[in-house]
Design brief:
The chain is mainly beta. The chain is built from one helix and nine strands. Strands 3, 4, 6, 7, 8 and 9 form a six-stranded antiparallel beta sheet that branches.
Length: 164
């Protein structure tokens, strides 16, 4: 009886020792932080993912975001006529890249946006400007499905007045 108990304990300990390395590979993002460029209106999300193990040399990371951009026309005097010459554009944006894995982790940044004006254009004598961009529902995820909600969210430029 004692031998059987000792055998079962030894087998259980062996299983735990063999299973431990598998538990070391538990990918998760430590952070995902949003920033908006006040000159271009682009969203950059910086991240760090750990727990990737030592088997992979690179990993694909994807950034998704919903974006709303306001475009307006201005005349040569720098005034915004009160006519119907402004447009709000909404788009789902996706950016991705391959990032090097070192010591079971990776750190990087992805940039998307702003969405373009689509078919919107200004009449003769007026110039198109990007006035504001807001990003929401921003997430980073890896090829295995590990995901992190990036913050702050939503994030906006405020008024930027960038010539298109």
């Amino acid at each position: 009886m004692r031998r059987i108990a000792l055998g079962l304990i030894s087998a259980a300990c062996g299983t735990v020792l063999v299973a431990t390395p598998a538990l070391a590979d538990s990918p998760h993002f430590l952070f995902a932080t949003n920033d908006v460029n006040q000159t271009t209106g682009a969203l950059t999300t910086s991240f760090k993912e750990v727990g990737l193990g030592t088997g992979a040399s690179s990993i694909d990371i994807t950034l998704t975001a919903d974006a709303t951009a306001l475009y307006q026309c201005y005349n040569n005097g720098g005034n915004h006529p009160k006519a119907r010459n402004k447009e709000t554009v909404t788009a789902a944006l996706i950016g991705s890249g391959a990032f090097r894995v070192r010591n079971g982790q990776t750190t990087g940044s992805l940039t998307v946006g702003p969405p373009g004006p689509g078919d919107f254009s200004c009449p003769s004598g007026q110039t198109l400007f990007l006035e504001k961009v807001t990003y929401s529902n921003t997430f980073v995820f890896d090829q295995g499905g590990t995901m992190k909600h990036a913050t702050p969210d939503p994030i906006s430029t405020g008024t930027i007045h960038v010539r298109v």
